[in-house]
Write a structure and sequence with these properties.
Elements (H helix, E strand, L loop, with lengths): L10 H11 L13 H15 L3 H10 L11 H17 L6 H38 L5 H39 L2 H23 L7 E4 L2 E4 H8 L3 H15 L4 H18 L3
Helix pairs in contact: 1-2, 1-4, 1-6, 2-3, 2-4, 4-5, 4-6, 5-6, 5-7
Amino acid sequence: MTDPSSQEITRKDLLKVFWRSLRLLGSFNFERMQALGYVHTMIPIIKKLYKTKEDTVAALKRHLLFFNTAPWLATFIFGITIAMEEQNAKNKDFDSNSIESTKISLMGPLAAIGDSFWWGTFRLLAAGIGTSLTVEGNPLGLLLYVLVFNVPHYLARYYGLFIGYKVGASFLNKAMESGIMQKITYGASIVGLMSVGAMTATMVKFETPLEFNFGDASIKVQEVLDQIFPAILPLAVTFFVYYLLKKEVKIMYVILGLLAFGIVASLIGLM
């Protein structure tokens, strides 16, 4: 029988996650974005919480799904995820699907906040301060640039992880006791699906330049489609790729196929 104390997450465990989170972008790819970095960061927690091969494999696969957010705030999601994994390991009735739903629902808003605040504001502020000294021949300009950007960055990563875990743990305990966990899971699933839908419309780009001329009048196919159903072509492409993946077509073949189609379509004027 497993000793319950061996499944308690400690500060030492969270520090392991903190240091590993710095490698979140180490295996970035355009299929699942930060997924490999996410599962790499979660390995110490998963190994501690799950003692059977089946549970460990299931947890690893759970975090290999698509994930992408601002790395400066990602540790907040890590903290909540750790709290949820801890509850999942202790409570057999816990819905493990809620873990992925929560990640999806949080990664979009935090990406928007993190990118605008750190990448769009702090980076420019740090660059401005550092450059003003560097152009005057002061070598401290470079050091100041690194410090102005990274000190708040590391503080946000560190405290974000512990706050996420603390908030997640206490909130989940109350949710389990009150019986509203199922409603929260359902709500998180809806937000997650909305995020996926928004990503489809904003990240998948597919248009056609087809145009039909009737005397002095011309009809642009893309304009007509936009009036009937905006972003219908990106949606169709997304469903087609989803269909291929469901048929277990290798992702590399899908990417090469789409690339070949784009080249041919451009040559004959379809795109």
